[in-house]
């Protein structure tokens, strides 16, 4: 953690205080103060993934859950964003900073926090931790919870939508970084497309960067260039799972008059793509907001349980957006496929 980092602290009343976090160590702060109504105020520390609040995708979904907690519960929060290509030591320092200042619970947004949270949680046994997108859906520790998502199930449905809406017979996929998590998106997308239209051509997946370079979740220019490449291969529907870099995908695909499919949040309603919103066919919704809120609520109500929780089609943890009405004519088919997945008659792959 760099010394002198400026961090914004937001209270439930909406007042903003500017703090200077001058060190990552030090004496632990009290775990919570009293609110105006005499109730204990929960202090929530949240460490974002690359791109932070405002990425209009994955991080913003987490932020929405935090904002809901601020509205519904007696809480105050502190947020810190990650830096591209940072080492695990920086993530650990960020988590220790929040825990040392008395934030409890502490949330790490993104699978890259998994190892760091498991390590730091051992140092703060009284602090509850959540890792969103727990790597391989595994966590350790009596004070650690992991939120996992069946991205392949939601991707299966938007893959079916892509195939059914394609006029060229060719569709594409752009992933931010070539990691197992993003491969799940492609695996489900390809399977859903083939189920809906067996003769559909699904282009090989394009991953913007390879680990340890995670800039593929942020660089819109990379998304733009990748989209041009798939458009040149006659794809007329392109699905992205690239976080903030996906904004470049959507803009380029939309400007070409083809269909884009968003991810994580309902991207039809996001300002960054307002000019091409009518070219957003649908979005694969991943309710990170629900996972964050339910975790905070469990800590507030003393119902916290360690271990992982799966968010899937059965509990509406993933799904697709009907915004814009562009999939209205095929919703019956999509809902039929959803029912098959929920009942278990359709098994969705997690590897391509």
From TrEMBL:
Keywords: Cell membrane, Lipoprotein, Membrane, Signal
Signal peptide bounds: 1-23
Membrane topology term: Lipid-anchor
CDD domains (UniProt xref): PBP1_PrnA-like (cd06354)
Location in the cell: Cell membrane
Transmembrane annotation, as ranges: none
GO cellular component terms, semicolon-separated: plasma membrane
Family, as annotated: Belongs to the BMP lipoprotein family.
Name the record gives this protein: BMP family ABC transporter substrate-binding protein
UniProt lineage: Bacteria, Bacillati, Actinomycetota, Actinomycetes, Streptosporangiales
């Amino acid at each position: 953690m760099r010394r002198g980092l400026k961090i914004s602290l937001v209270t439930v009343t909406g007042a903003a205080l500017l703090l200077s976090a001058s060190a990552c160590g030090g004496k632990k702060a009290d775990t919570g103060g009293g609110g105006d109504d005499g109730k204990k105020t929960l202090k929530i520390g949240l460490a974002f993934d690359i791109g932070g609040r405002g990425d209009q995708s994955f991080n913003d979904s987490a932020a929405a859950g935090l904002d809901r907690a601020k509205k519904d519960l007696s809480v105050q929060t502190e947020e810190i964003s990650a830096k591209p290509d940072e080492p695990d030591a920086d993530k650990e320092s960020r988590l220790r900073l929040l825990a040392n200042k008395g934030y409890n619970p502490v949330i790490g947004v993104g699978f890259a926090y998994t190892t760091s949270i498991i390590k730091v949680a051992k140092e703060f046994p009284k602090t509850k931790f959540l890792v969103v997108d727990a790597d391989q859906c595994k966590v350790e520790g009596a004070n650690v919870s992991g939120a996992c998502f069946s991205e392949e199930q939601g991707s299966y449905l938007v893959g079916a939508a892509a195939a059914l809406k394609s006029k060229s017979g060719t569709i594409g996929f752009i992933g931010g970084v070539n990691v197992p998590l993003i491969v799940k998106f492609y695996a489900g997308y390809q399977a859903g497309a083939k189920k809906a239209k067996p003769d559909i051509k699904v282009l090989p997946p394009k991953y913007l960067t390879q680990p340890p370079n995670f800039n593929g979740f942020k660089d819109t220019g990379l998304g733009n260039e990748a989209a041009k490449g798939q458009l040149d291969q006659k794809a007329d529907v392109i699905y992205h799972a690239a976080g903030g870099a996906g904004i470049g995908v959507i803009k380029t695909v939309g400007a070409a008059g083809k269909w884009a499919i968003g991810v994580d949040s309902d991207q039809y309603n996001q300002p960054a793509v307002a000019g091409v919103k009518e070219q957003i066919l649908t979005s694969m919704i991943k309710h990170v907001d629900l996972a964050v809120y339910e975790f905070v609520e469990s800590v507030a109500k003393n119902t916290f349980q360690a271990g992982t929780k799966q968010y899937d089609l059965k509990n509406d943890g993933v799904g697709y957006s009907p915004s814009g009405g562009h999939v209205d004519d095929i919703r019956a088919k999509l809902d039929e496929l959803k029912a098959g997945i929920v009942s278990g008659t359709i098994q969705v792959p997690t590897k391509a």
